[in-house]
Design a protein that fits this description.
Number of strands: 3
Structural class: mainly alpha
Number of helices: 5
Radius of gyration: 12 Å
Order of helices and strands: EEHHHHEH
Distance between the termini: 15 Å
Shape: globular
Number of domains: 1
Helix content: 40-55%
Strand content: 5-15%
Length: about 100
């Protein structure tokens, strides 16, 4: 996926058409490439890659189930998340099998 699909900010990262990336490794690789190009102050550089992948996979899971497709096609990886949202994404990510 093209790196121009990532919009970085200090409080989060927006990835357009994130549903097109399906494997964990491809998500990690994409986030690492975005990190290399982003300013160190951006959220993508400050937040743990694994937690970002969990959130991304949770979005993809709901996209595949046709739940809020207009909202789950893209992903917003926010820097600060409540603990319960992080836990929810981690659990839902476990059930995403479409690699």
């Amino acid at each position: 996926m093209d790196l121009s699909n990532a919009i970085t900010a200090k409080d989060g990262t927006h990835i357009v058409d994130s549903c097109l990336v399906k494997s964990k490794q491809a998500m990690r690789d994409y986030l690492e490439q975005v990190r290399e190009m982003a300013d160190p102050e951006m959220a993508v550089c400050k937040r743990d890659i694994e937690s970002q992948v969990h959130e991304w996979r949770a979005h993809n899971f709901f996209y595949k189930l046709n739940v809020f497709r207009s909202r789950t096609r893209d992903v917003d990886l926010e820097l600060k998340q409540p603990w319960y949202r992080e836990l929810f994404c981690r659990v839902v990510s476990f059930f995403y099998f479409w690699d």
